[in-house]
Design brief:
Elements lengths: L1 H17 L4 E7 L4 E7 L4 E4 L2 E8 L3 E5 L2 H7 L7 E4 L4 E2 L2 E6 L5
Antiparallel strand pairs: 1-2, 1-8, 2-3, 3-4, 4-5, 5-6, 7-8
């Protein structure tokens, strides 16, 4: 009986710990180009195509970020805005994104 209770407790703890840590997005443009995001709300971390990006602003509705340090250095003096991932509509520029359960590999 104790073993059953202990296994149930450990099972529920493991579920809570792993639940929605990372959100995987698969995005496709109108020209059929593909890109992907990994979003971690706890750590406010955004990974685009396998590379962690510098986040400018993080809200429930959208995430703004710089593509790279070079683009940031070029864009900031010219008052260009960083890229935006819209979390409500699931869009990133000309890409439409959808949540996927797991990675392909």
């Amino acid at each position: 009986m104790k073993i059953t209770k202990l296994s149930l407790i450990l099972f529920f703890i493991s579920i809570v710990h792993t639940y929605a840590k990372d959100v995987y997005l698969s995005c496709e443009s109108t020209t059929k180009l593909k890109t992907s995001f990994i979003i971690n709300d706890e750590k406010k971390r955004l990974i685009l195509d396998g590379i962690e990006r510098e986040v400018v602003k993080w809200t429930k509705e959208f995430i703004t970020f710089w593509q790279s340090k070079t683009i940031k250095e070029i864009s900031e003096p010219r008052n260009f805005k960083p890229d935006t991932l819209d979390r409500i509509s699931g869009s990133y520029g000309s890409y439409n994104c959808k949540v996927v359960n797991k990675t392909l590999f």
